[in-house]
Amino acid sequence: MLAKIKSARDGLRKSEQKVADVILADPDNSVQSSIQAIASLAGVSEPTVIRFCRALECVGFQQFKLRLAQDLASRGTFFYRDVTPDDSGKELTTKLIDGAIASLVHVRNQLNYDALDKAIQFYIDCNRIELYGSGGSAIVAEDAQLKLFRLGKPAIAYSDPHIQHPAASLLDKDALVIAISHSGRNQDLLTTVQIAKDARAKVVSVTATKSPLAELADVNLSVDIVEDSDIFSPVKSRLAQMVVLDILAVGVAVRGGEEMLHQLAKARRAIDFKFV
Amino acid sequence: MLAKIKSARDGLRKSEQKVADVILADPDNSVQSSIQAIASLAGVSEPTVIRFCRALECVGFQQFKLRLAQDLASRGTFFYRDVTPDDSGKELTTKLIDGAIASLVHVRNQLNYDALDKAIQFYIDCNRIELYGSGGSAIVAEDAQLKLFRLGKPAIAYSDPHIQHPAASLLDKDALVIAISHSGRNQDLLTTVQIAKDARAKVVSVTATKSPLAELADVNLSVDIVEDSDIFSPVKSRLAQMVVLDILAVGVAVRGGEEMLHQLAKARRAIDFKFV
DNA sequence: ACTACTATGTAATTTTATTACATAATATTG
DNA sequence: CAATATTATGTAATAAAATTACATAGTAGT
User: Fold this and answer.
1) Chain-wide mean pLDDT for chain B?
2) Distances from the Cα of B220 to the Cαs of A161, B107, B208, B223, B263, in angstroms?
């Protein structure tokens, strides 16, 4: 629609062009305005605005506004821009959410499906899961615990390295470790994972490609998010990690066949009223 | 917006529900209709339609239609499809991530900026923050705690109702409560919030529009996500809630002016190597 | 069963969009 | 370069739509 206005502009009558200019100058504002507001902004009469709409093949002003609004809504490409102190609430929201979306799109494009399949197989072959992560990654670990829990095998998350270490040393070859880290360079976590490996547990990491943690793990689900401009630490990676683990959990569920899905649906219904 | 209507529906008055049903039944047609048309289709009076729009936090019918139209337009971009057992890893990933993205787009389109501004002001005016959430929402509360923590005021998250209750009773008018819930109908949480209000604390809720919790809170940051087809419980709402609280936190930070941003940057550098 | 409150509708009012018509501007032709 | 036709634009009237103010019906609580 915007493009249509632009290309139609020169073929319009003089006063209609004024209307086109006003709308092109601030389309977001225009969709909220009345004919009156636009007419006076453009310095033309109200019928002129209607004629303008008709020239654009709309039956009236309302339809024109509707089309324009839909156009504006779907134009959204999600590119990340830094927030600045003078952003309005709307700008802030748009920027942060677009950033989050962009990082999810990124994950979608980079996720390694072989690794995912291997991780799913590890889950199927194990008899219990331990999740390790500290700081922000502890949140992700807990979230994943909630999910994996309902798939039928014991799952527990530890965030304190002093507990992770002894816990890891008690694992065996039937245990699965999921180690979560943004940078993959947290020394405590690396030590924990090494202990788990020495105990012959399988290790899936959720971290940056080529990081020490990714190298150490049996399988890495890569989450490479640049947090370049966030005021806060890894918010976007946290989202991305959560989604990756969600994919793992759902993957396990669907590979488990009909009966697992069925059981999950049951579990869900039972929990729903509590899970708020 | 559609999701918003769905989740708000049960909290509406009877005749407003009729309006909701008419619109949900054929949203594409509704955006082109006048109040009259919708009113007569729903078998209610015209003012009822307006009241319905206001209940959805729109200033009038026009704004409502506009939002709905924009919602319909962007709905096609990332649409959610159910996962099936024979999905490949790639299909699984695409489906789940698109679902997550769609829910973030929703949040972007529906967030109420006035409410956001008020919530930011509450933070600025308070001297400590308590976050309440159970189950999945406890994860969100902890995540938010991590963020708010660094803005300079004490923040603590409680997930156990038996701890939330006494904690809430000890609050005073300088305390800010952030209550998180998917449905906004968790009785324990409602009780906690009532206790907090009786203690004169300010309450910001992060939950579904028109839910009992939203009604009870001083300000609600609406997160209306339909989890219709997820195998797991509120994963998408959890993401959405986290993002909304991230927006709140960043909003507080940027409104705090240059010096707060500076301090945060310092804090971040200091923590970075730990915060993995 | 009465009171108070909430929900809903009716009718008036205001705002918004549209039409019909008049006038001004521009082009066309003798 | 008039005179006239044609097109463009505005004014004022009208119709439609949205909104408000108010009245009444319904409901919950005593």
Assistant:
1) 84
2) 37, 13, 8, 9, 29
Chain A residues within 8 A of B69 when measuring between CB atoms: 66, 69-70, 73
Structure tokens at A46: 């109200």
pLDDT, one tens digit per residue, over B47-73 is: 899 999 988 888 889 889 888 888 887
What residue in A sits closest to B269 (Cα-Cα)? Answer: A233
Nearest Cβ partner of A139 from B84, B143, B231? B143
Instruction: Locate A108 and state its tokens.
Output: 């979608």
What confidence tens digit (pLDDT) does each residue in A63-80 have? 888 888 888 876 654 555
Could you give the CA distance from residue A133 to residue A142 in angstroms, rounded to a whole number?
Answer: 9
Cβ–Cβ gap A69/B74 under 8 Å: no
Question: For A225-252, how does the pLDDT look when each residue is reduced to its tens digit (9 = 90+)?
Answer: 776 545 554 678 888 899 999 888 888 8
Query: Which CATH code is given to the segment(s) A112-272?
Result: 3.40.50.10490
Residue nearest to nucleotide D20 (CA to C1'): B47
Say which DSSP state B135 is in.
T
Cα distance from A238 to chain B (closest Cα, Å)?
9
CATH number of the domain at B113-272, out of 1.10.1040.10, 3.40.50.10490, 3.60.15.10, 3.30.70.270?
Answer: 3.40.50.10490
Cβ of A233 within 8 Å of Cβ of B272? The answer is yes
The pLDDT value given to residue A45: 87
Candidate CATH numbers 2.140.10.30, 1.10.10.10, 3.20.20.210, 3.40.50.620; the one for domain B2-74 = 1.10.10.10
Distance CA A215, CA B116 (A): 43
Facing residues of B186 across strands?
Answer: none
Shortest Cα–Cα distance, B1 to chain A (Å) = 13
| A103 Cβ within 7 A of any nucleic strand D atom | no
Question: In this predicted model, which residue has the larger pLDDT, B217 or B233?
Answer: B217
Nearest to A233 among B73, B243, B275 (CB): B275
What pLDDT does B273 receive? 43
Radius of gyration over every alpha carbon of chain A, rounded to an integer in angstroms: 27
Contact B67, B183 (CB under 8 A): no
Query: Which residues in chain A show pLDDT less than 50?
Result: 77, 229, 233, 271-276
Q: Which among A66, A76, A117 is the nearest to B69, CB-wise?
A: A66
